[in-house]
Recover the amino acids of this structure.
């Protein structure tokens, strides 16, 4: 029987909790092991995500390189066509017999070149739009996958 100071009642058959150091060490070890496992899983996921991102950037750079080459080739083709049209026009101007024929030939050439330039601009615009979509697709897909994985976690 034990007495509590300041109280007039007595406590009988009280068991005190015993501290077992081996159980405490085991619990600390279990928590530490769980923390290590969680860290390994997080690192593994981070590594996987970084590899996915790297592949997306590599794909984007490859698409940009291909697009750059395509734009360069189309630009060279347009410049070549414009130069050939200019030389053909000069040859036609040399053969002109009257001022009226000169003005008629010049007006027809300018109108044709405006139409050709518009068509060339449309072609380049289409290539650039497609390139923008193609280049952003791998990164967009990786981002969407990361968001999906984040929501699932």
């Amino acid at each position: 029987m034990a007495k509590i100071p300041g109280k007039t009642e007595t406590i009988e058959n009280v068991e005190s909790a015993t501290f077992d150091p081996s159980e405490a060490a085991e619990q600390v070890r279990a928590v530490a092991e769980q923390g290590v496992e969680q860290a390994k899983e997080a690192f593994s996921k981070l590594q996987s995500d970084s590899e996915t991102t790297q592949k997306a950037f590599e794909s984007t750079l490859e698409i940009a390189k291909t697009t750059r080459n395509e734009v360069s080739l189309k630009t060279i083709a347009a410049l070549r066509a414009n130069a050939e049209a200019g030389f053909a026009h000069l040859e036609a101007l040399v053969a002109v017999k009257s001022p009226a024929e000169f003005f008629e030939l010049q007006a027809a050439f300018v109108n044709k070149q405006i139409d050709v330039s518009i068509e060339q601009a449309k072609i380049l615009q289409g290539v650039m739009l497609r390139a923008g979509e193609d280049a952003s697709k791998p990164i967009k897909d990786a981002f969407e996958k990361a968001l999906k994985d984040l929501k699932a976690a």
